[in-house]
Amino acid sequence: MGGVAFISDIHGNWEALEKTLERLESLGTDEIHCLGDMVGYGPDPEKCLDEVAKRCSMVVAGNHDWAAVGKTPLEDFNVLARAAIYWTRERLSPSQTEYLATLPLTLPLPSSILLVHSSPVMPHQWPYLMDEFSARVALEGCREKLVMVGHTHIPLAYRMEGGTIKAIPFPFAIEGEARYLVNAGSVGQPRDGDPRACCIFMEGGWVRLERVPYPAHVTAEKIKDRGLPPLLAMRIQEGW
Predict the structure, then answer these.
(1) Half-sphere exposure for 118 (CA within 13 Å, toward CB)
(2) Using CA atoms, how far apart are residues 19 and 196, in angstroms rounded to an integer?
(3) Residue 199 phi/psi, 5° resolution?
(4) Comparing C-alpha atoms, which of 191, 192, 190, 172 is closest to residue 182?
(5) CB–CB of 56/21 below 8 Å?
(6) Domain total for the chain?
(7) 1: pLDDT confidence band, cut at 50, 70 and 90?
(8) How far is it, in rounded angstroms, from Cα 189 to Cα 128?
(9) Greatest alpha-carbon span in the chain
(10) Mean of pLDDT over the chain
């Protein structure tokens, strides 16, 4: 039996998604779950969206996904994100728009894993989980042993047991009565200073972070050629 993978925040970056899926296939992945934000920022929202719908077993909505179909106010987004969302809206087909509009915010899996883009606590408000306090609030707001999130574009993991919570490094093993919150980072726009795509691979009780090189310069040229803000091209090449 192979492993289970979690991808998030693809943001219309086809080159990053393609290389990530190739890596996961080489690892013998049985299932891939997507934690949202297939669109926004990047130049290939249609292609990425179709591929996620085809390849992923379970998918939840992200804030950019909802914004692209008018379910989240654009006032909540910065200028770059807002410009990209307007651009994206013009390119989605009616069936793609309907697909995004019907995605749930949370999805519990039978294996006591919860999928959510931001947090199980008020997920429609898209809170950012950036520290031990916010991770504790999220874990206390649900029952699952493992909560998988995205949204911040920064891969992180927290372990909570006996009232104590702490950040832990990758890789780590799922153990005993402890509960975990894991941020899968971002396939299409990492923001931790490492421009490689990243995702989470879980096998045999172990959780590890996968970093995947991809031709970011190709995506950057598409961003500029297709009329998206040039700063977005710079960001994906530098990982911020």
Answers:
(1) 16
(2) 10
(3) -160, 175
(4) 172
(5) no
(6) 1
(7) low
(8) 16
(9) 53
(10) 97
